[in-house]
Specification:
alpha/beta, 52% helix, single chain, binds D-mannonic acid, 5-stranded parallel β-sheet, globular, 479 residues, binds 1,4-dihydronicotinamide adenine dinucleotide
């Protein structure tokens, strides 16, 4: 298979060579190359951090291949991924070389897995945050950008000025309407720099939305050791995932695309119903489980799922509070979907830390829990578990666990949380102060007494009973 690799053309520049991309899009593209001799390959780029640069250095050193181990409690599959042609990082190759790669005539797709915060938007509105330090920098110095948006814009400017073919910007992050969010953010930044460029982007560049799904935990020392035992090699780019994978893509590409549908992707006209289903049923329940699981002393999601109370309450939030908010094509059975999710969460072969999913909650709550709360509020139906999920996040970002030990909080807004808790302790006033963060909570949420009261009730239960007993209490209360 290695033989095919030198025929690859790096037509897809991917930003965000993280664990998820390595186990998802890179695999689809690899399978397509194997199956149909497709010549679509990747140029992998990380833009951030010394760690990101080190990974790219290691990838280059290993001729752009690595191994993927897919596993559940019954099977394991080891695959050497061969869909990558090149790799770059601004600290290794220079900022201009990276921009030029994105602007190269052969580049047809720029895809992204840069985490929710990479879009520099306010999560409650999904609008570009013009006071974000990286965005302020990019407005002042567009030729040496810092944000992903700034890099994309610098490349699009070259394409516009040199009359080069258009590209597709393909967001593969867990954000509702991810294509639209990427488009609006780039257009808002372009409007600050060059209105003609903004107009050209509107007319020429497409931003398909996607629903992406595969549980891919961050690698740990144990998982690297497992890979070494299987392959005999140290592979810093190796990754471990569950066997399940799904990719639903809006079919609007500006300059061609791989035939990913031959290897399991679905091209559709409208991704929104699939995205909403996944963000609410899977990710909403995942965050719920992560905060309550962490507070209850569970290191891994699959451990929390062995506790029958946790299993049942997660099933309950999916079926009673998330499912009713969705409307999907007739061929999708949401009861079956929920059952499959419960099995995936309980997969003990995958060591997914509750603390990993708990990261960046400020960026995740709106699409995972708050949108559904608003749906119930409008319909007049009840949502105790969605409110419990938000309260568990609030209890978690207090930075102190149930044994009084510190919780390391990783979130772009962590300074705000720590100021709030320094001032109010874990009292109910902290809830009021958190609700005032309008980047997370829209006025529809923070000024609605019913919603606020439900969150406060749940928060008080968590303080009084602790997470495990609160889960029990809610199960009996709602039966
Ligand atoms: P990771 O931590 O392994 O990789 C994160 C990547 O994002 C790195 O390449 C990093 O350089 C880049 N990044 C982080 N902050 C950035 C910023 N401010 N600007 C530009 N780039 C930035 O995480 P992983 O697992 O690859 O997840 C990345 C995203 O993929 C998630 O946030 C989510 O949106 C999506 N995803 C992840 C899944 C998973 O199970 N891990 C499954 C489905 C989607
Ligand atoms: C998780 C997701 O880290 C998180 O917040 O909820 O990354 C989850 O593993 C994926 O979306 C599954 O597709």
């Amino acid at each position: 298979m290695d033989n095919n690799r030198h025929q690859l053309v790096p037509r897809i520049v991917h930003l965000g060579f993280g664990a998820f991309h390595r186990a998802h899009q890179a695999l689809y593209t690899h399978l397509l190359i194997e199956q149909s001799q497709s010549d679509w390959g990747y140029c992998e780029i990380n833009l951030m951090s010394a760690r990101g640069a080190e990974l790219i250095r290691q990838l280059k050193k290993r001729h752009c291949t690595y191994v993927l181990l897919e596993k559940d409690e019954e099977r394991t599959t080891l695959t050497r991924i061969n869909s990558i042609k090149e790799a770059m990082h601004p600290r290794i190759d220079g900022v201009h070389a990276v921009i030029e790669k994105m602007a190269a005539p052969e580049t047809a797709i720029i895809s992204l897995t840069i985490t929710e915060k990479g879009y520099c938007t306010d999560p409650s509105t999904n609008k570009l945050n013009l006071s974000h330090p990286a965005i302020r920098h990019d407005i002042a110095y567009p030729e040496t950008p810092e944000s992903v948006l700034g890099y994309i814009l610098a490349a699009l400017k070259i394409r516009f000025q040199q009359n080069l073919p258009p590209v597709t910007i393909l967001s593969c992050d867990n954000i509702r309407n991810n294509g639209e969010v990427a488009r609006n953010a780039i257009l808002s930044l372009a409007a600050q720099q060059d209105s003609e460029l903004a107009l050209w982007i509107k007319r020429n560049i497409t931003f398909p939305s996607t629903m992406v799904d595969r549980i891919v935990p961050a690698m740990t020392e144990d998982s690297f050791a497992e890979i070494k035992q299987l392959t005999g090699e140290d592979d810093p780019c190796a990754v471990i995932s569950e066997p399940f994978r799904q990719w639903v893509i809006e079919d609007c590409f500006a300059n061609g695309r791989p035939d990913w549908h031959y290897v399991g992707a679905q091209f559709v006209k409208d991704v929104a119903p699939y995205e909403m289903m996944k963000l609410r049923m899977l990710n909403g329940s995942h965050s719920f489980l992560a905060y309550l699981g962490y507070l209850g002393g569970y290191e891994f999601i699959s451990d929390a799922m062995q506790n029958q109370d946790y299993y049942q309450i997660v099933q309950r939030i999916m079926l009673a509070e998330q499912k009713p908010t969705l409307s999907l094509p007739d061929n999708i059975d949401l009861n079956q979907y929920a059952q499959q999710l419960l099995t995936r969460f309980a997969n003990r072969a995958i060591k997914h830390k509750t603390a990993q999913i708990a990261v960046d909650g400020s960026q995740k709550l709106p699409q995972r829990l708050l949108d559904s709360i608003l749906w119930h509020q409008k319909k007049g139906s009840d949502y105790p578990l969605l409110a419990l999920g938000v309260a568990a996040w609030m209890r978690y970002v207090s930075g102190i666990n149930e044994d009084g030990e510190p919780i390391p909080i990783k979130d772009p807004l962590s300074d705000e949380f720590s100021k709030i808790y320094q001032h109010h302790g874990t009292s109910l006033e902290a809830v009021d102060a958190l609700l005032k963060i309008d980047a997370i909570f829209s006025p529809e949420i923070s000024q609605n007494n019913d919603i606020v009261n439900k969150i406060k009730t749940a928060y008080q239960q968590l303080l009084t009973l602790g997470a495990r007993q609160t889960v029990k209490y809610y199960l009996t209360k709602i039966d």
